[in-house]
Every structure is written in structure tokens, then in C-alpha cells.
Amino acid sequence: MFELDRYLKQRSALVERLLDAAVPRSEGPSARLDEAMRYSLLDGGKRLRPILALAACEAVGGGIDDAAPFACAVEMIHTYSLIHDDLPCMDDDDLRRGRPTNHKVYGEALATLAGDALLTDAFAVLARSPLVERAPALVVQTIAELAEAAGSRGMVAGQVIDLLGEGRAMELAELEYLHGRKTGALFVASVRGGARLGGASAAEMESLSVYAKALGLCFQVVDDILDVEASTEQMGKRTGKDQAHGKNTYPGLLGLERSREFARELSRRAVAALANFDERAEPLRALAAFVVERKL
Amino acid sequence: MFELDRYLKQRSALVERLLDAAVPRSEGPSARLDEAMRYSLLDGGKRLRPILALAACEAVGGGIDDAAPFACAVEMIHTYSLIHDDLPCMDDDDLRRGRPTNHKVYGEALATLAGDALLTDAFAVLARSPLVERAPALVVQTIAELAEAAGSRGMVAGQVIDLLGEGRAMELAELEYLHGRKTGALFVASVRGGARLGGASAAEMESLSVYAKALGLCFQVVDDILDVEASTEQMGKRTGKDQAHGKNTYPGLLGLERSREFARELSRRAVAALANFDERAEPLRALAAFVVERKL
Questions:
Q1: Which CATH number characterizes residue B103's domain?
Q2: Which terminus of chain A, N or C, has less C-beta within 10 A?
Q3: So what's the ipTM on this one?
Q4: Total domains present in chain B
Q5: For the residues B14-36, what does the mean pLDDT come to?
Q6: Any chain A CB within 8 A of the CB of B84?
């Protein structure tokens, strides 16, 4: 029987160590920048994306060392997006993972620059991956997909659609399009990148894409549900803000009960996509159950 | 006799076409993002960094097609840095290249996101370079150096030192350290990246690094001089602001006359570094003269 709790604890500790080494403290005149980057990067997030990247690498028989720099890069990009999202000109949030947001501590200028630096350094970490010696083409391909997932056709596009869509009711298809970019693209890139660096076949890449797409959407539907149901204390960030901001959400569109059912359906769909994988995909299966049951 | 004027006109027109193709207009719900990116990217800047990249590629005998995606990436990163620099929480500028700054037209949120997207897409453009088929290792190495030049140990560090140093008098060595990061790092990466993709030898890379370092500093000294001497109309951006912001500058530290002499000395140093190059380096030599004589 696979023990997800223990697995998550071990893997998030590993990711924490990798991130700590990837963004070291410096002594020079820009030490405050490193401090701001590390403040948001090493704050004990769930590390879902890097854990998915490592799990996908193992599911196809790869060794996690080959995917470790990539896992760091993914979490650095996720963290930059949170720092910029929280800025006063964006969602204007002052609480994240139970602590003051980056700009509350370091000011808006430094928070903007810390986000910029995390995004940029992510590509350096990935391009300096030891795997480059053996398989430079795999690394370039992974960089390309990650940049596309995070850029103007992926995550940033999702942010813009979300921003421009506030206060205007969306159809279900439009909401799915938005989340496919805002959350889904980075989930898919995390899983595909980990698998590619682990030596996945084309058929494995295909199945894992279906898995990751369903899982990413599932994650977002649950996020929307938790924003309605959970308290600020439980979540460590301000909740109930989607409605206050006139944001489009699944509970807003489908109601809570149908949203819960939709999330369970997406989780089942993710697991079904792994039918041809052996027991090495057990963590990915367990993660699909975890995402739908999570309370924060 | 090499005609720099005609060369610059041809090359900046080429860069404009490359950039136009690299960041296409889209039709979807995030079309406004593309518009914001293109507003700042296609505004007829000097294109000095991509022109340097292409010239360095040719100076070592490469064909410019191999460096074209890299040249785009460099200018996209430069443009993102200008958009974020101009934000109210940073330099709070409302004029750039004779037009309202990005956030004045699109608002702060979209300007922040347009910068994020240009930075991210730059790596996608580079990683999708056709050269990947023939030389993936060269492309990864170029990505690594570019990300390092732009990230927390390079350009962003320079920004932070500049920001934290406002109103505090710096020594000359400190000012050089600042500019080595804020402007110099991207100059050096532009020249080195173009040369690497053109097939440069280790010795050529070494000479070109010396060239680029001197040229980058020269560019910054002249920038400081123009901020004192030129009018807002000439420059297309607000001038005289360094002193108003309590910024550390070369004229502030050395006086105008010694700053001019220092700039000329740096330009000579850049040209001297190219002693072992043949006539294919003529554009690089002419660019070193141009940078010190430029009026905007």
C-alpha cells in the first residue's frame, strides 16, 4: 500500500533542499534581492508541481536526479507568478501561505524584481542541468515547452484573461480555457518535462499529458471550492475574495455540489489516463486523489 | 570604407521584422496582452543589443540566421526590463522613446504582465531556434549565459543596487560594479551569445568579452552624460532625472569633461580588443565609435 503522506513529506523536504541550493544567499550589495527571492521561495508551499515533475520522471523509469533542476525551475516560476499576482496593481493580496506577501515585507519595487529574478534564474538553473552533457536536445526541448507554458500563450495569457474577465460572467468553456492557461499549462509542463527528462516514449508523453491536463483543472476547481468553503486561517491566504472581486469560478457557475462532482470526475479521468503504467506510477495516482481531497 | 549609417538602418529594419514575427498578434481573448507586448517591443528603439549579437556572429564567420532568434531574445529581455523599470513602483516614468510608457497606455497590471511575457517568451524563441537541430549544446549554453546575465546575479542585481543606492554617494568602483550588472551583463551576453552561435573559438570569445565589457560601460557613461546634456525632446524620455532621483552617475562623480574622456577611452579599449579580427569585425569597430558619439 502506497503511503502518500510519508511520500509527500519526504519529497517536499527534498524539494526544499534543492530550492535552497538553487537560490543561494549572497553577501554582495544585492543580498536583499536574494533575501526577497528566498522569502517567497522557501516558505513551505505544497510543492505540488515539482513533486509531480519528479513523480512523472520516475513513472517512466527515470532517475529523479535528472529532473531535479527542472523541478526547481518549475517551482521558481510558480513562485514568481504568486509574487506578481499579489502585487497591489494585480490582486492586491497581503497574505500568502500564512505570512505577509512579498511586497508587504520588501516593498513593491523589490517584490517585482524578486519575481523577475526567480523567473529568469529558473531558466539558468534548467540550462545548467548536469543532464545537458548527456542529452542537450532533451533539455532545450524542455526549456521551450516550459517557456511556452509560462509565457504569453500560457500562464500569462491566463492571468490577462482572468484580469480582463473580472465582473463579466463567463461560459463554462471560457472558464475552462482560462484555467487551462492560468493553472493547467504549468501543470502539464511540469509533468511532461519531468517525464521527458526521464526518457519517456511518445505514447507515455501522450498519456501523461491527458493525466496532467485533467489534474490541473481538478486542482483549480478545488481551489475555487476552497475559496468559498475554507477560512482564511485554514488556507493561509485571504479566502472569499473571488466573489468579492467578481471573479469567474466553478462554484459560481455550477454551484458547490456540481463543482465537487466535477472535481471527482476530473480526478478519475486523470487516474484512468495512467492505465498502461505499472506500479511506478502509483505516486501520480495517489496525487490525483490527494488533489481532490485536499483541504488547503 | 564601412558605412555605419546604412548598416544600422538595414540591420534595425531586419531586427524589426524578426521581432514582429517573434511576437505575433493573436486573435484570442488575450489579444490585448500581445498588443501591450508589441507596443513596447516594436517602437523603433536603437536595437543596439541585437545588432551587436548579429555583428559578433558575423565577426567570427557565422551566418546571421543562426543568431537571429537569439538577437530577438536579447531585445525582448531588454524591452521587458524597460517596461518594468518605468513602472510607478520603480522609476515611475511616463515617457519612453517619445511615447507614453507601457503602463500609461495599458495600466500597471497589464504592463507588469507584458514584461513578464516578453521575458518568458524570449527563452521560448531561443529554445525554438532552428539551430537546435544541429547544435543543441550551443543553444543550451547560450540560454544559460543569457539567463545568468539577466537574472539575480546580473541585470536584476544591478537594478536592485541602483534602487537601494539612490541618495547615497557611491565610489567609482561601486558605480562600475553597478553598471557592470545593470547594463554591462546584457551587452556581454549579447556579444558572446551571437559569437558562440556563430561558432567562435575560445580565444575569440575571450577577446569579444573584453570588447563587450568596455562597450557596455562606455554606453552607460554616455547615457549618464546625455541625461545631463540632452533635452527630453532629443532623447524621447525624461532627462535630468538622475540628479532629481539622487542617482549615482559618472558626471556626478567625475564631472562632465572627465566622463567624456573616460567614455572615449572605453571605446578605444573596445576597439583594441578586436586587434586579431579581420574586416568582418568592421561593424563591431564602427559600433564602438558610434556608442561614444551618439546623441540619443
A1: 1.10.600.10
A2: N
A3: 0.96
A4: 1
A5: 95
A6: yes
Stated as kind and residue range, the H or E segment containing A140 is helix A136-150
User: In chain A, which among 140-179 make CB contacts under 8 A with chain B?
Assistant: 140-141, 143-144, 147-148, 150-153, 156-157, 159-161, 163-165, 174, 177-178
Evaluate if residue B270 carries a pLDDT over 70: yes
Q: How far, in Å, CA of B215 to CA of B220, rounded?
A: 9
Among the partner-chain residues A33, A148, A164, the one whose CB lies closest to the CB of B156 is: A33
CB-nearest partner of B109 from A90, A139, A178: A90
The Cα of B148 is separated from the nearest Cα of chain A by a number of Å equal to 6
- pLDDT mean by block of 10 residues, chain A; 296 residues: 93 97 92 97 93 98 98 98 97 93 98 98 98 97 98 97 88 93 97 98 98 97 91 74 82 94 98 98 97 84
C-alpha atoms less than 13 angstroms from C-alpha of A218 in its C-beta half-sphere: 26
DSSP A271-291: HHTTTT--GGGHHHHHHHHHH
Closest-CA distance, B238 to chain A, in angstroms, reads 20
CA dist B228 and A72 (Å) reads 44
Question: Domain of A248?
Answer: 4-293
Give, in order, the Cα–Cα distances in Å from B15 to each of B49, B64, B114: 10, 11, 20
